[in-house]
Structure formats: structure tokens, C-alpha cells
Amino acid sequence: MDIKQIQDLIRFVAKSGVNEVSIEQKEFKITIKTNQAATIVHANVSAETGAPAPQPVAQIAAPVAEAAAPVAEDTSKYITVRSPMIGTFYRSSSPDKPLLVNVGDEIGVGSVLCIIEAMKLFNEIESEVSGRIVKVLVDNASPVEYDQPLFLVEPK
Q: Which of 10, 24, 47, 85 lies in the 20 to 30 Å Cα band around 75?
């Protein structure tokens, strides 16, 4: 990692609300701690790729309190699509492009639902289920945590 990547990582950690991040490569280890609530995320970085790509290995130790109001409707019949990583959630591939999915859209296995940016890498998040999008749970360009609910899907 060069100094610019480390500075970007520090800014990302501060913005995401995570308390501590540890990254290990073959001969490199970095741990970034903040003075926020106790939340720990561990990431392994693939040394084979040119750019680091975080992959969460452990769940968040102390989950961040949800700011959403309690939902009165029954969501038990829906499947929740969750974030596989921490990053910034985007509903389209660029600001001038249409949204990847909308409420009411039919999706299949492998359909791209959103993009999560993590350390300047844009990761397409694909659906693992077929069904219809019932609700989008995250605002566009918002930070998301590992395992945070993103969409509610009514299965086929």
C-alpha cells in the first residue's frame, strides 16, 4: 500500500463509523482505530490483485444501532438482501445512468442490484434469489456496513 491508499483508507474508516479495521497482506499489516463506539471489522486483502480488495472475514462484533423506525408491516415473507462488505452504496453505475433496480422490478439470480464502492473499487452486488423488489432499504450514496440489509425481495 502506498501513502495515498492509506490516507484514503483512513478517510473511509472515519466516514463509515467503524471503530477498528485491520488489513494484512504478505509482508504488510495495518490497523486503524477510531474513538467511536466499539465496532470491529477484519479484512483480508488479496495480494494477487494489483489493488487491495477488502473481504470481510468476521461479522461486526458490536452492531451499529439501526436508525430506521420500526416497520408496522409483516416482512417475514420477504428475503432480505444484505451487504457483503462495508462501503458506499450506489443504485446506478454512474450519476447519469438509470437505476439498476426499482421497487416492483422482477429480478433473477445473478441480476445486478447495486454497486458498493470500497477503497476506490466498485463492486457489483448480484442477486442470489429470484423475485420482485419490494423495498430499497438504503439511500443512494450512503455508507453501508457488512451484513446491513439493502433490499427486501418477495421470492418467486
A: 85
Residues 32-44, buried b or exposed e (16+ Cβ, 10 A)? beeeeeebebbbe
How many Cα atoms within 13 Å fall on the side-chain side of residue 121? 17
**To the nearest 10°, the Cα dihedral for 111, 130, 57, 121?**
10
| Beta-bridge mates of residue 25 | 28
- Give the DSSP H or E segment for 120: none
Collapsing DSSP to helix, strand or coil, 94 comes out as: coil
Q: How far apart are CA 12 and CA 36, in angstroms?
A: 14
What does residue 84 show for φ and ψ, rounded to 5 degrees? -85, 0
For residues 136 and 37, give the distance between their C-alpha atoms in angstroms, rounded to a whole number. 27
Span 58-106, pLDDT tens digits: 444 444 444 444 545 667 899 999 999 999 999 999 989 999 999 999 9
Is 148:138 a contact under the CB 8 Å cutoff?
A: yes
CB 153 within 8 A of CB 129: yes
Count of residues in the chain: 156
